[in-house]
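Morning run. Coffee first, then this:
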Amino acid sequence: MGGGAVDGGDTAAAGRPRRGMWWPAVVAGFAALCVGALALVVGTSGGSPASAGSRAAAAVPADGSPDAGFARDMSVHHQQAVNMSFIVRDRTKDPEVRLLAFDIINTQANQRGMMTGWLDQWGLSQTSAAKPMAWMHMGHDYQAHDGSLMPGMATNTDLDRLRKADGKAAEVLFLQLMIKHHRGGVDMARGYLGMSGNPVEKRLAGTMVAGQTSEIKLMTDMLAARGAKPLG
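And here it is:
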């Protein structure tokens, strides 16, 4: 997960073909935000419109809760995955890797839209002064460095290497970085599942665990086909 918006320079450089790929992710994210807000109300009200107001209000997570923390941190984690996928899409012509990148862009932009929509619905800020993943009460304290804010995130140096790579070298580096990224995301989602107080957000976290675990297997096979292995 990187916390900023999709890199503007990369988008502009790609011209019309890039916009054709970029807009579906934006539309998906916006639609997910709307659907996520609606699902939150329905999920916390037991499906009864008449009781939605009082029950939804009672279910609003606190600012320092695992629900708010997971939504914030996973949004940041997802954004970096989207950024990396846009980068590799322009560094290779391999259809298999480009399709994977497109799937990650759409899936994670969609999920990110849901989580930021929930934070807005709860009246909470998108960011927090707390250290990333403080809500997990982990036994170790991850030291953010070179743009890597949470376990699994690529560093700024990693991203610079990816931007400069081409063809097979770009494919291998992307797959290695994304496997590591997914592993960090899966660990965070599993951690949240053990602390969740919101059934709708818990379902999304379960979807992330299943989907990204499957993609890790796919990417490991793709690396093997290219004579490479995941990073240690």
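Residues 1-58 have pLDDT under 50 and may be disordered. Good start to the day.
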